[in-house]
Task: inverse folding
């Protein structure tokens, strides 16, 4: 128990929570620092090109904290996916949640966690979608990227259960984008036409609601199963 003055005349009783080892935080600053949202690092940071380690132990507090940090960073950054290297954690983990944001429209998908993922199938048919990235000028730069329209990915969830997901549209797109991060690849390296690079304002006004962007982003296939 800790008494906090908090700038008012009556002291406030504050029961500080415990950390992952069961030890209570001795000072409020340490607790609030631990709860802070992780910053999305920017291109040039060595963690984005470093080798990423596979997860060997599931359903543990450290992994749960990593997934929570990724999810919090994704929501706070108004992004639809974040990979562990983007918060300077070099593990083969990423999360996705295509949804309506300031820069995205259309029907999305629920929050999904991918641990030790492997994309095992790519469709021969491709589509072009303008992509951005939280690690490139904080998501303020967009460019056209051609990728397979449909994929099949296998990965593990937080409980260590292996699953297989077949999907298309923006879900397949963000999975491939985050999967590239695990290999140190940025979307800038895959832009199909560098003359069409643009800032977020131009993207929002001219591309976001264009017929091609909407059609290519539409999710028609979501087939999930545990294996």
Result:
């Amino acid at each position: 128990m800790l008494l906090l003055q908090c700038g008012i005349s009556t002291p406030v009783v504050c029961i500080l929570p415990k950390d992952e080892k069961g030890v209570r935080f001795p000072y409020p600053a340490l607790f609030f620092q631990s709860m802070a949202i992780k910053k999305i690092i920017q291109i040039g940071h060595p963690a984005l090109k470093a080798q990423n380690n596979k997860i060997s132990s599931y359903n543990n507090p450290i992994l749960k904290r990593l997934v929570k940090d990724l999810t919090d960073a994704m929501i706070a950054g108004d992004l639809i996916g974040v990979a562990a290297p983007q918060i300077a954690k070099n593990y083969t983990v990423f999360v996705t949640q295509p949804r309506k944001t300031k820069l995205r429209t259309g029907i999305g998908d629920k929050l999904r966690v991918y641990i030790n993922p492997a994309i095992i199938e790519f469709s021969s048919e491709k589509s072009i979608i303008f992509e951005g990235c939280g690690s490139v000028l904080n998501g303020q730069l967009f460019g056209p990227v051609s990728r397979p329209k449909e994929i099949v990915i296998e990965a593990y969830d937080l409980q260590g259960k292996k699953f297989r997901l077949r999907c298309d549209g923006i879900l397949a797109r963000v999975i491939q984008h985050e999967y590239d991060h695990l290999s140190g690849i940025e979307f800038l390296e895959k832009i199909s036409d560098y003359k069409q690079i643009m800032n977020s304002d131009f993207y929002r006004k001219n591309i976001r609601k264009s017929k091609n962007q909407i059609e290519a982003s539409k999710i028609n296939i979501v087939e999930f199963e545990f294996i």
User: Anything to note?
Assistant: Residues 1-20, 23-34 have pLDDT under 50 and may be disordered. The chain has two domains: 1-36, 41-226. The longest helix spans residues 61-76. DSSP finds five helices and eleven strands in the chain.
